[in-house]
Amino acid sequence: MTSKARVHAALERKPVDRIPIFMWYHPETLERLGHLLEIPAAHVAEAFGDDVRQAWVNNNYDMSGLTLAEGEIHRDIWGIEWRREDGFNQIIQSPLSHALPGKVSQYRFPTDQINSLMERMEGLMEFKKECFIGCDVSPCVFEMYWRLRGMENGMSDLAEEPEMAAELLERCADFSRLLAETAVQRFAFDWLWTGDDVGGQQTMMMNPTMWREMIKPHLKQIFDVANKNDLWVAYHSDGAIRPIIPDLIEIGLHVLNPIQCNCPGMDPLELKREFGGQLAFMGGVDTQGLLPHGTAEDVRRATARLIEGMTADGGGYILAASHTVPPETPDDNIFAMYAEAGLSRKEIFDRAAAIRTRLVH
Q1: Rounded Cα distance, 261 and 267, in Å
Q2: pLDDT tens digits, residue range 324-343?
Q3: Residue pLDDT, tens place only, 59-118
């Protein structure tokens, strides 16, 4: 079964030869695994059997969208300044952080860079027959807003400057929708990946009623691009977002990620029981306690229980962690997680050997 067929079958709740996988790693974890397998870090996901190949075409400069040296600063085409800190790119300056409402309305999104942003998808097209291909247009609405305004302003604007906030939120969504529409016209892919981090560790970052009024209608327009073109819709938000899951289903969501299982209301098996007939899930392997601090046997048991529960109706699940796999995660724990998905340590090392041979030739 090809990766493409495997993921499609799982999302359609049909039998698969093994659980599909789409894992994210902290950059330091990725480098370590590459060294262990004696392959470049860029090929680690392939060795570990990732079934999804995906490219970001929006403002993804926090992890994989931009390679910086530690401490290096970069100003992107949105005017946002980033600095590499502890393996991640962190925002140190937002272009509209001190702007008055009139200046905010004058801000121009980088629509003249659409073609260069789309180039990131071109490299995936050679794999479209075998692999499940994703196009990521996140951050879509609120997360793009606060990247431009700064987090503190982003939160206060919703209450204190609602008209300005409404206008800029719409323009953030319009840019994401334009990227989605352009990608659909140019490329053959399998899902549209969307996202906005609107959940905190205990509750949502904003009142769910406010989210429904100010965010949901814009997100629906982005989802509509995929649904009108027979693509799956995936959505990412960290944190406790249980109150809006029914809303996401209502506007056309198919796949929810990352299921941050330590947050209230986000127990994966409970969500599966409640929404599994309407929604597929990706994620749920705990990266705060289990992976970095549990034993390999702990990881095996928890992963086996997760897979069994999340596929109780025959499918609807992609194995992934609830965040990036952290650097302090023991190698044995990573291999234990994959073993429960049907990929042995030997198979992973054999894949790595095949990659080395291919790269040499």
Answers
A1: 5
A2: 999 999 999 999 999 999 99
A3: 987 655 667 888 999 999 999 999 988 778 889 999 999 999 889 999 999 999 999 999
Other residues' Cβ atoms within 10 Å of the Cβ of residue 265: 14
Nearest in space to 48 (alpha carbons), one of 335, 297, 285, 287:
335
Rounded to whole angstroms, the Cα distance separating 200 from 263 reads: 8
Angle, vertex CA 123, rays to CA 118 and CA 124, nearest 5: 95
Q: Which of 26, 24, 67, 27 is nearest to 48 (CA)?
A: 24
CATH of the domain at 225: 3.20.20.210
Beta bridge partners of 133: 53
Question: pLDDT by residue (tens digit) across 188-205?
Answer: 999 999 999 999 999 999
| DSSP 8-state class, residue 242 | G
- Paired tokens of 324: 């990036």
SS3 sequence of 49-88: CCCEEEEECCCCCCCCCCCCCCCCEEECCCCCEEEEECCE
* CB proximity list for 196: less than 8 A, separation 6 or greater: 138, 139, 140, 141, 142, 143, 144, 215, 219, 237
Q: Provide the number of structural domains found in the chain.
A: 1
Q: How far is residue 335's CA from residue 331's CA, in Å, rounded to a whole number? A: 6
Output the pTM of the full model. Answer: 0.95
Facing residues of 285 across strands? 321
Domain that residue 243 falls in: 3-65+96-360
Would you say residue 53 has pLDDT above 60?
A: yes
Return the SS3 of 199. Answer: strand
Residue 75 falls within a domain, yes or no? no
